[in-house]
Structures are given as structure tokens and as C-alpha cells.
Amino acid sequence: MQHVRDCGAQLFIISRKGGTLLAINDFIYRSNLKRFGPLGDKVYWECIHNRSKKCRSRLKTIGDDLYVTNDVHNHAGDRQRIELARRSGMLIYKKFSAIGILTH
Ligand SMILES: [Zn+2]
To answer: Fewest C-beta in 10 Å: which of 58, 71, 85, 101?
Structure first.
């Protein structure tokens, strides 16, 4: 498991459907932002192709720390979708600890 301590601002995609999407290394992860753990600061993220392609890549964040539980994807990255979001002004930078107050 990879552990990245105290991440800076991360790239999020504002989704029209109201979900919160995280872009890392051309891959996109989705979370319902449900909080777990004793401090309520643990959030789970799964690849957006979890259902359609049964991709098992997943992450978790605890505060601003990122834990890569599984970084093996069974598909190519989503660079085009991220670029499209960038051109549409749908990308925002926030720290993990600030995503509870994402504005849509
Ligand atoms: Zn994947």
C-alpha cells in the first residue's frame, strides 16, 4: 500500500450528477464522501469504472493523507475526460480535508 502523507490540493471534477470525482494520474475516482473512522475523517474512493469494467482500483483518504489500497486498473486512463472537464471549467483544486465543503 502506498501512503502519501499530507497531500496538497488535489484535482476534483465537479459532476453534474452531484457526485464528487477525484482525478489522480489520469484516473478518476468516485466517492459518496461518507465519513468513517473514530475522527470521521476517513473517506473511501473507488475507480469510476468499478461497475462498468469491474475495475478494483481503490483509495482511501484519512484527513489529507492518501492511502492507495489498489492502483491496478484494468483499462486505460481517462485523460480526455479530465481535459474536457478542464476546458469546461469543471475542475477545482482542493485539499482532501476541505472537500466536505465542495460547492457545486
Ligand atoms: Zn480503474
So the answer is: 101
28 C-alpha to center of ligand 1: Å?
8
CATH code, 65: 2.20.25.240
Q: Does 104 map to a domain?
A: no
Ligand 1 midpoint to CA 54 (Å):
8
| Residue 104 in this model has a pLDDT that exceeds 50 | no
Give the pLDDT score at 100.
66
- Taking the centre of ligand 1 as the mean of its atom positions, its distance from the CA of residue 49, in whole angstroms, is 5
Q: How close is the Cα of 70 to the center of ligand 1, in Å?
A: 10
CA-CA distances (angstroms) from residue 40 to 13, 37, 55? 23, 5, 27
